[in-house]
Amino acid sequence: MSGARTPVGSTAGEAAKQTVTISFAGFNRAWAAWIGDRLERRGLRVVFQRWDSPAETPLVDLLRDLKLAEGRILVIVSEWYFQLGPRTHEEWNAALREVVAPDPSRFAAVSLTTAPVPSATAVLAATGLINLGAEEAERRLLERLDLPADPLPESADGARRGPRFPATMPEVWGGVPRRNTRFTGRERILNEAYHQLTTAEPGAGVVTFHGMSGVGKTQLAAEYVYRFGSEYDVVWWVNAEKRVTYRRGLAELAPKLGLQTGQEYGERLRAVRDSLRRGDPYARWLLILDGADEPDQVWDLVPTGPGHVIVTSRNPEWSEHNSMLLEVPVYDRDESVAFIRRRAPRLTEAEADQLAEALEDLPLLLDQTAGWLNDSDLSVDDYIALLEGGIDQDVVKVSADFPLAFQTAWSILLNKLRETVPESVDLLRLCTFFAPGFIPVRLLKEMPSDDLPEQVAGLLNDPLLWNKAINQLRQYSVVRLESHEIGGDETSSSGEALYLHRMVHQIVHDDMPDADRAEFIDVVRRALAAADPRRPTDTRLWPGYAEIVPHLKYADVLQSKDPGVQSMVLNCLRYMYFSGEYVAGIKLGERAMAAWRSLLGESHPRIWELSFHYVNVLRAAGEYERTEVLNRAAVEHLREERGADDLEHLRAASGLAADLRGLGRYEESLELCRWILAAYQELLGEQDSRTLNAQNNVAVSLRLLGDYAGALKLDQQVMESRRALLRGRHPWTLKSQISYAIDLRLLGRYTEAESNQTQSLRENRLVMGENNPQTLNAEYNLALCHYRSGERARAGELLVRVLERGERVMGETHPWTLMFACAQSCFARENGDIDDARALSEAIVARYETLLADTHPFVAGARANQALILRNVGEREHAHVLIEQALAGMTQAVGENHPWTLGCAINASALRNLVGDTESAVSLSKDTVTRAAEALGRTHPLTLSARIAYAADLRGMRDRRQAEKTEQEALTDLEATLGRQHAHTISARSRNRPYWDFEPQTS
Fold this sequence. Notes:
The chain is of the alpha/beta class. The chain is elongated. The protein starts with a strand and ends in a 14-residue tail after the last helix.
């Protein structure tokens, strides 16, 4: 921050007469900005001059250069101002006496510190601004500069919004780490980040601090917050190492923004992102994503809007996601030397330089080493000799990514901790069985204390010992306290959450005796199990699971035989399924299956329970062939071992039925579902949730077989029963509402479907979250409701949004994403860009042909949609061949009376007519009308389309009398069913031939 700004309400001539140069340490930038703003509002010209004090330049010369500045020089006095260099008080006293004392009127000062400063600072006659309110601080500032303190005219003061008074916090502040009072250097990066963010277009203000572990990316982001935070109304810091923790942290912002939401996790997340996008109630917001090393996991959740985003990451791929990359290197040597001398004042400049070279200028290592070296009698030469000679090369094994010096340096530091407070090493080792980063050590304090190992029990049950251990670790910068404790009493609040750097995490984890490893890992596993909310279907408890999940791997929970730990694993897997975290769920399921089979044996009851939940996640991701094999093996084993009416067998059989539906074997699935439903009804009664699930599955199978009326009847029963048995906002109840609306739409009851689906989508967004797969499905169905009702603009907008988010959340080959893509391609064919429609359709056909068997109905349906595109672009022969292939494939897959087959027939008759095969077209159209009336009813929209198409084919045969009669009857029924002004009615009246779009339906 340097240079001049044009003041409000003053002319250039006036400004030149009254100039103030503000000299400040970068650490006090917020105060400089506020002071400058207050002076500019009074017509002064302000020049900002950040004070730097390179060690090679004599202090007297630097002060003489400062005197060259125009106008009065206002020095912002603080301990940071005098520490830069660093310089001794003796140096400062001599320079102030030589340069400032002869001409004191050129200088003025304000003080921000009560710490000792050089005695000659008295010549500056600084007035104190600390512990004051904004009005009194401004009055004292003006008095010191001999300026009138009259109130500003209201118009002038309100002309623009300036920086906030630095002693007051932003309106919303959360998660920010404590300020590092030893922060050194990085001025270029801080200024570049500020420039990039403040000059970015709205929605594009994203900067990523990128660099290796240990270079201080997090500290740099924190320093940015404290320097520039006065320019924001909202500052929110989120741990972004995992998608689940990032989503949770962002959702917790909702109540701070004053958003009126319920307790549901998804509702809060949606409300926060919408609020930030709109800049309401706050447009000046800053969001920090700390540790976002996997951009693919979180980039789609980065808010847009008028605010700014800072990311810290080791991954340079953030540049591919509209972020400006700023590399954070190791310290420059002068920065290293300055930092070491502030951290270890007993060291000389030469010793600091020597140590910096040995430790390769890595900030994290400099911080930890200099901290304890300052308290040690060991000389720098002796320490470097230890580094070069090594202590025990087998003690610590370090990743090749880390500097070689890290290995021995950490061996020395751990020895120091063992000698002083050995319990601090125990606590540190416990922390390494959580994921690196933010560690919820409060879970250790909250777990049941019975049967704890003696070594750990003393640490966890003695508050004084606990705080002593934490303070020792903090003293040497091994850990830092979590941000939410800022402003609290350290002795009472310390230990709820700590931050442990990943480099330290790996070192300590590897440097552990086997006996301690077994003891400590068991404690952390039990702590995680005790924190299990135990209801993964309750969206209000999802934040609890989001906190647990990242630590499962590091606690190696899959190797535990503890039933409580195993139940926690299963609940986490279920949480991943319900929350739509399919990729993470599949990884956990795969690892658990392998581990538990080895640990427990192939036929252990836990294996079958795990298999059920794992297969659910696999199926949700479209892995039907894998799930069918797994489920069939489970069904056969459980039936043979426990009998057909065993509840575990019935549950596995339900999964098998779902696999059959995914594979397109709908009749088999329906038969199995009906048998399962009868068994549940006999064993559990009509109102058990498992019976209702079985009834729901029968409805799904009926819908896939084209029995929409039968599906509607069952879905309505299940929906009403779930509302009574569970609750209105239970995920399964919400899913039933979507199914019910789909049935209404497929029956042609578009107005009812649209009304029901609008309400259902609203509730899914509130409860499940905007990007949950179930919510996307609800939004997709509403888009089709709009489309069928003739509201094409609304439908098109929703379809684009759903497809984009589906690809981000679930991937391009997920069954639901392909379903969304089919609808978008069909919409684009009729209402958008035919080239885009063709490209998307070709991709869909290729993916279905790769993922599914050639006999699957989805393959035939996708080819039918592609044929319509080929027809529109004039490739009639190719289109004709493809639609005939689709008709034959669909007939074979689901039968000649299925609505999908009837739809293919409507399209096939049109193409037969187009290529001149009019007799065959009429024959097919007539047969289609007969079969559609029998299967769906005379006034179903699909039947009406078949009748209009039949009339067109009759005209092609010049049978005008029969064509007119058929057409008029169909138009009369269309008007009665859909209305005179419905898009389908108008189109039919204009003699536009109807077509049918294949819509893949999932279970």
